[in-house]
Q: What sequence folds into this?
């Protein structure tokens, strides 16, 4: 066994080195790299990923992972046990999907985003449909190769992004959302006719001051810049490899200054999670977070529950006024609070607010489910999209650019991924409830002591990295299994007001 572990560790060491370089090139590309360097860099990335694929598909590697997995009971260390399970899960893709098909699929994916962008720009779904159909076909095959006795069909894809998730579990989750949230949203958005001061909606907020406020936020939230970095990109994101190197980006739109505030806070939520795992996981498969859903629960908790709370702005609004004295003159904290918590029906997911967000995800979930059940054809997606948007969000897009073409995810081959966004918000509400039972969260926010919140999250969630499954983590942190009603109650309380 010891020999086998040594072989495994030596492979892991090489894999980590390649991944780190790839990660660095991708970070560079998304942030400061000159546009002109794109071609040269993509050639290098191609070589690197070929090399990496050679290592992860090396028969010696596959064999040692298989053997360790078969002898799992002889490994005492529970972390190592979990790591081998994860390595085994990952190796299934390499093992079961024929290499030719896998490479062909990568070629399709490399072309698809440009085709999607053109289709979106011209508002013409028929441009995107053929390649999307190929991507779906591939994923159907992928499902066939990977399905097991317990996991079949679309559930195979759901489980990739949220370990343990199935169609049955998500159906239950979304059924509750349909029953409870759709009528509530209709009620809230009907009477919401508040007219905001034009200073908030139509004004210029210079990027220099926005940058200062972002910097201020990193201090307020305790995002450790000695192990992180605040950069800039068109679409904000978090990217980390080990707890000592977790970077975020934000955006600065001069006519939409709250986008900067809330994307900075959102990404810091992801980053603080990654920075706070036990450093012993660095360099192992247990570094980072547990699942996409759990990760999103942290970013949304920081963004929505802390960052959009009245307690938070009571304390920090004066700082914002100090940076934007002309723009915010005459606007009090109550109006600002209402402004950042508006609930309205929108066409685009990225414009959706906290209340209506999961309904946008519901539309995508049902379409994906139908695609993999075989009851929907790719060319019929736009029609189905309009129909479901009308039913669930109460708004029907006139253009596919605002409908089925709005997101890049499917062009990237991401099926089964969207639902984790909604699940994350629901996890967040349950975790927030449990945290409130043990510490006074509001008073921590009012006293500029978000570090107390960070410490609770570290103790109950963050320290574990990926050493627990989402189900284990929720049970461990909240002392009960996942329960969607915390989410419904939270939304009804907040938006009922
Ligand atoms: Zn996020």
A:
């Amino acid at each position: 066994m010891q020999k086998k572990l040594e072989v495994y560790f030596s492979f892991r060491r090489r894999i980590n080195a390649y991944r780190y370089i790839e990660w660095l090139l991708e970070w560079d590309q998304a942030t400061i790299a000159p546009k002109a360097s794109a071609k040269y860099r993509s050639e290098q990335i191609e070589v690197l990923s070929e090399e990496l694929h050679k290592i992860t598909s090396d028969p010696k590697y596959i064999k040692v992972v298989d053997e360790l997995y078969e002898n799992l009971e002889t490994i005492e260390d529970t972390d190592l046990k979990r790591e081998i399970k994860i390595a085994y899960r990952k190796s299934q893709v390499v093992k079961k999907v024929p290499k030719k098909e896998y490479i062909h699929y990568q070629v399709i994916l490399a072309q698809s985003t440009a085709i999607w962008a053109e289709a979106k720009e011209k508002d013409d779904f028929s441009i995107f449909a053929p390649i999307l159909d190929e991507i779906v076909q591939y994923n159907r095959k992928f499902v066939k190769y990977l399905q097991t006795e317990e996991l079949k069909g679309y559930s195979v894809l759901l489980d990739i992004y949220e370990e343990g998730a199935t169609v049955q579990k998500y159906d239950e989750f979304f059924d509750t959302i349909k029953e409870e949230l759709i009528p509530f949203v209709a009620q809230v958005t009907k009477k919401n006719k508040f007219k905001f001061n034009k200073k908030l909606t139509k004004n210029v907020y210079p990027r220099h001051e926005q940058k200062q406020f972002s910097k201020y936020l990193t201090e307020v939230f305790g995002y450790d810049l000695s192990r992180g970095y605040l950069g800039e990109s068109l679409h904000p994101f978090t990217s980390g490899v080990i707890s000592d190197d977790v970077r975020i980006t934000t955006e600065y739109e001069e006519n939409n200054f709250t986008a900067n505030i809330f994307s900075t806070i959102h990404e810091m939520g992801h980053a603080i999670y990654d920075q706070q795992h036990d450093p012993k996981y660095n360099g192992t498969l247990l570094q980072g977070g547990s699942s996409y859903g759990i990760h999103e629960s942290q970013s949304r908790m920081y963004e929505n529950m802390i960052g959009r709370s009245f307690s938070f702005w009571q304390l920090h609004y004066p700082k914002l006024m100090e940076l934007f004295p002309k723009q915010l003159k005459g606007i009090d904290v109550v109006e600002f609070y209402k402004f950042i918590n508006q609930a309205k029906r929108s066409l685009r997911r990225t414009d959706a607010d906290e209340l209506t967000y999961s309904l946008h995800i519901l539309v995508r979930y049902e379409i994906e489910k139908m695609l993999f059940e075989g009851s929907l054809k790719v060319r019929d997606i736009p029609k189905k999209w309009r129909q479901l948007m009308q039913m669930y969000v109460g708004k029907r897009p006139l253009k596919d650019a605002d409908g089925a073409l709005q997101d890049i995810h499917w062009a990237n081959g991401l099926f089964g991924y969207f639902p984790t966004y909604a699940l994350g918000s629901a996890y967040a509400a349950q975790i927030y409830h449990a945290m409130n039972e043990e510490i006074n969260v509001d008073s921590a926010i009012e006293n500029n002591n978000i570090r107390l919140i960070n410490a609770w999250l570290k103790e109950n969630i963050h320290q574990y990295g990926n050493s627990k499954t989402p189900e284990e983590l929720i049970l461990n942190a909240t002392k009960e299994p996942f329960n969607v009603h915390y989410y419904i109650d939270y939304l009804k309380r907040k938006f009922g007001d």
Summary: Residues 14 and 279 are 20 Å apart (CA to CA).
